User: Fold this.
Amino acid sequence: MATIRIPTPLRKYTQGKEEVQVAGATVHAVIEALESSHPGIRERILDDAGKVRRFVNVFVGEEDIRFLENLETPVAERDEISIIPAIAGG
Amino acid sequence: MSAGAGGHYLVLGAGGLGCPALLGLVAAGAEAITIVDHDVVDASNLQRQVLYTTADVGMAKVEAAAVRLRSRDPRVQLRTHRVHLDAASLGPLLAAQPAGTIVLECSDAPGLKFLANDTCLSGQLPLVVGGVQRWRGQVQAVVRGHACLRCMFEGPPPPELQESCSQVGVMGAAAGLLGFWMAQMAVALRAGSPVAGTLWAIDTRTLAPQQMRPRPRPDCPACGADV
Assistant:
């Protein structure tokens, strides 16, 4: 199963866990599986149209999914997926 | 002993990030610093805005900051601008800066961070943009030819999802860490170190940094033409 690194602001949906292992063949499938086990988290990552929110970035390993196949980017066993939200306070 | 930072730095925001960034720049030997902020010191700021004391409450932040910095090193040339930064004021401010200026975006305004990204790129001013909330933060150095802030995040959150530090809080030490980090990145940029484009993120509860190296996006509205 792939490992998703959960950013601090979203850990309230994962009972404080900073990493969650989820099965899914694509990034989209992984996010849907994450939502199934941790309801509410999807809408913090995806907008109403089902696209990644503008102030969030998703990496598979070190690759930005926008350079790959976006949400249809394949996910392999042992891949690490990072969800990076913008932090804009000062 | 200074790091020989030299040069001129423009610091946008003299709050949680700006205060430690200013201290870091002075300590590193900056020749000249321009400080920009519209706000006055409030008692609620003091837990993280480390340049100020209770004696400064009610004083314009840029003036209070200048007094504190001069007391630390009277050799630094300081200029202050008490102005609210927005799309109308930022462009002329940046255009007026001398060549070689490095900009540090330390405000609490998400939209301003992206505006500074766009304007500094078009004006070819190196930029260090930082953000801090609660106990976590991010820093990225933006230079043409490398991934910019919009390559990483296409835009700021909508207003209804924006959370300011005064609303959600920020650990003083986290702001201090990120602000000094920003100063060090600015010094590194001046020294020609290859720090541009990489985003560093840190959760200060675990102190585990995360480093992302986004690629410049060809369709980035801010820097795509450079790719």
